[in-house]
Specification:
alpha+beta; Hypothetical upf0131 protein ytfp; three-stranded antiparallel sheet; 6 helices
Amino acid sequence: MSDRIGHLKHTWVQSHHPAHQALRLQQQQQTEPMFYYFAYGSCMCPVDLKRTFGENTHTYVIGAATLKGYRLGFYRRSALRNCGVLDMVKDPSASVEGVLYRLPWRLSDRLDEREEVPQGGYRQEMVNVSCQDRIYTSVRTYVVVNKLAEELAPNDWYFNVVLRGALTCGLPEQYCWQLFNHMYQLQQRHWLSSVSAVGLANGN
């Protein structure tokens, strides 16, 4: 397990000094409307999000953020990825770690399409998150519309891209381990169920 995390982990290096980054964001705000977005699944990985937008998304990352009152679960089956994908459900005793982005409004429709909003896959939900000792209000995130009754395991590709995003953007190490363990246990359960099903089919 440690080898797998060690392979994925690398240092998050900002391309510019934080003061320069803040100035760049201010200039961006003056030129086009923006919105805040809280990612907790595969979109935590800026490289994977770049696939959707067709442009570099690292500069839109504000940092690791915390959303209170929700917990993670794999309550949606993705037809595209043929596996379970992440969702959030309300839980007053829990919290979710993720990545806060500040995105140009021109990317809003493409983000909705990625989350399959037009097809009824996910829906927008507005939340408040804490990031770098500040509370951000009216932050967009997405939750599954029709949730599965039980969690469905992710495949290896989804497993890796979620963990890579969490590590790259500096989510707490303990949370990364919890996320790793959650996905690993789901995969193990799926594997055992598959083995049992094959055994029953063969009369064992």
